[in-house]
Task: structure prediction
Amino acid sequence: MSIASRIEHRGIFITSIFYAIAGILFLVLFPLNGYAPHLGLLGIFSLCTAYGLFRMRSWSLWLVMILFVSGTVFAIFTLYTITFQNLLYSIGAIVYLILTWISAIYVGAKREALKS
Result:
């Protein structure tokens, strides 16, 4: 029996995978961007959120909302400062912004499924 067949809420599981991938990418990019502290913080919060969502904990909703605000500010500021000079960063920031908004709306709508 696969893990995907045992999961009740596949949307929350997919959201936890998004936060895990985002957290790993932020921590990988942390040393490559001159040790920008906000990348490390976003990475740690993303990994904690992924764990909380995977375990269906109610406190993960708070981390999702924190990442919603901080991720939105990070992505918009990144787009503003590089002004599409680096196409790869611009596309990554736009994708991260869109997925952050979709994840926050989805988890907010399904918050009753999260246990304490």
In short: The mean pLDDT is 85.
